[in-house]
Design brief:
alpha/beta, Rossmann fold, 38% helix, Carboxylesterase_BioH, AB_hydrolase_fold, hydrolase activity, Alpha/beta hydrolase
């Protein structure tokens, strides 16, 4: 593991220097944001997994808090996303195995996995297939099946900009569409467009196809034995709250937090409520 310096705008330290980790996983460079603190594998570890066509920056408002309240954090760019090398992996199962390889590279025996959308499916599959490596899971915007309309799959595969518009439009609830944001200076819809427009060509198509093909959500949930928290947006049109509750019912040690007036992008639309849910689940101090 190589300790590097991150000079991105998210969560800057006063001197514009903030710790990050550049790891090598399966022969490829992987970027992991550590929330402004050096990564220490001896502390309890949280790995944050983003959704389709995104990167670690969607967790900016949670990563720093976790890193300064008892957790070592790896908010990763998945293969082929953001600053990570390699090609995007074409299945949820392959991504779940990759998470275990990531833990090996970071020297971590066991971690809590926090995933959104595609990342939630990855966390779920990893907990089912590698129970000895997963302490707990937090699943945001999750459902047993996450089918993608054929027209959206085709647009994403072709690199048609309409795919981004569809994902961003359907992914946000009313707050995003009305211009309201709980974070000063952040406009949710334009910010989402800019993030997804920066993704490498073809990546969104691979990601959406992986989500569409994953049919093992229910079977995986039946195998999960670790504690699980579901954070669901009441107005989620991509993973409806009813579907999230149904999936949660298949995990014995599960909790559900439903956030009102919120769509699929739970952690950016309702960052404080998301943090409250994480704080309670992990029993973190408020100071």
């Amino acid at each position: 593991m190589t300790q590097t310096t991150d000079t991105t705008a998210d969560n800057r330290l006063p001197n514009n220097r903030q710790p990050s980790n550049q790891l090598t996983v399966n022969g490829h460079s992987v970027y992991a944001h550590t929330g402004g603190r050096p990564f220490d594998p001896a502390r309890p570890v949280a790995v944050l997994l983003h959704g389709a066509g995104m990167d670690h920056t969607v967790w900016s408002l949670q990563t720093r808090y976790l890193a300064h309240h008892g957790r070592s954090v790896l908010a990763v760019d998945l293969p082929g996303h953001g600053r990570s090398g390699g090609e995007p992996l074409d299945s949820v199962a392959a991504l779940a195995d990759w998470v275990v390889a990531l833990l090996d590279a970071a020297g971590v025996a066991k971690a809590a996995l926090i995933g959104h959308s595609m990342g939630a499916l990855v966390a779920l599959d990893a907990a089912a297939c590698h129970p000895d490596r997963v302490e707990s899971v937090v699943l945001l915007g999750a459902a047993e099946r996450m089918p993608v309309h054929p027209d959206l799959l085709a647009a994403a595969a072709a690199g048609d900009p309409s795919a981004i518009e569809l994902v961003i439009g359907w992914g946000h609830g009313p707050r995003g569409h009305s211009g309201g944001s709980p974070t000063p200076g952040l406009a949710l819809i334009p910010g989402g467009r800019r993030l997804m427009a920066a993704v490498k060509p073809g990546v969104l198509g691979v990601d959406l196809a992986a989500c569409n093909a994953y049919g093992q959500g229910g079977a995986s949930a039946d195998l999960v034995t670790c504690p699980a928290l579901f954070v669901l947006g009441a107005l989620d049109r991509m993973a409806p709250v009813k579907a999230g509750r149904s999936l949660a019912s298949r995990i014995k040690a599960s909790q559900i937090v439903t956030i009102p007036a919120t769509g699929h992008m739970v952690m950016t639309e309702a960052p404080d409520a998301t943090l409250d849910a994480l704080r309670s689940f992990f029993d973190l101090r408020r100071a």
